[in-house]
Amino acid sequence: MSDTIKTPDQCATMTDVRAGVDALDRQIIALLETRFGYMRAAARIKPERGQVRDEPRKAQVIANAKAAAFDAGVPVGLIGDFWDRLVEASIAYEGEHWDLLRR
C-alpha cells in the first residue's frame, strides 16, 4: 500500500480503516482485470468451445485458493464459495469471448 494508506495494524480510526479498504478494493479490481485478461487469452487460444469448461481445472483452482486461504488464516469456506463464483464467472466470460472471436 502507499505511504498514505496505513496497514491494518497502524489504523487508529475508522477513516484509516475505510481508506485502507477502499485502496485495497481498487487493487483487487486491477488484479481481477488482469485475471479476466487471461480468460480472454484462453478464449483466443482454445480451438474448441467445449474446452472453455474444464471441471478438473476448476476443482484445482478452487482447491489451490482454499489451501492458500488456510495458510493465510482466512476463512476457507468463504474463500471456497467466493472462488467457485469467480471461476464460474470466468468460464462464462471466457465463453462469451470465445463466441465473439469466432463470429
Write the layout of secondary structure elements.
Layout: H1 14-45, H2 55-72, H3 76-101
Helix pairs in contact: 1-3, 2-3
What does this entry look like structurally?
This protein has about 100 residues and is mainly alpha-helical. It has a single domain (about 10-100), classed as Chorismate Mutase Domain, subunit A (Up-down Bundle). Helix content is about 75%, strand content about 0%. The chain has three helices and no strands. The mean pLDDT is about 95.
What sequence of helices (H) and strands (E) makes up the elements? Answer: HHH
Average pLDDT score = 96
Distinct helical segment count: 3
Q: What is the strand tally?
A: 0
As a percent range, the share of strand residues is under 5%
The CATH topology corresponds to: Chorismate Mutase Domain, subunit A
Specify the overall morphology: elongated
Low-confidence stretches: none
Name of the CATH homologous superfamily: Chorismate mutase
What is the CATH class?
Answer: Mainly Alpha
CATH level-two architecture: Up-down Bundle
The level of helicity is: over 70%
How far apart lie the N and C ends? 42 Å
Mind summarizing the main beta sheet? none
The class by helix and strand makeup works out as mainly alpha
Rg over CA atoms, rounded to whole Å, is 17 Å
Number of domains: 1
Features:
elongated; Chorismate Mutase Domain, subunit A; 0% strand; 103 residues
In short:
By secondary structure, this protein is mainly alpha-helical.
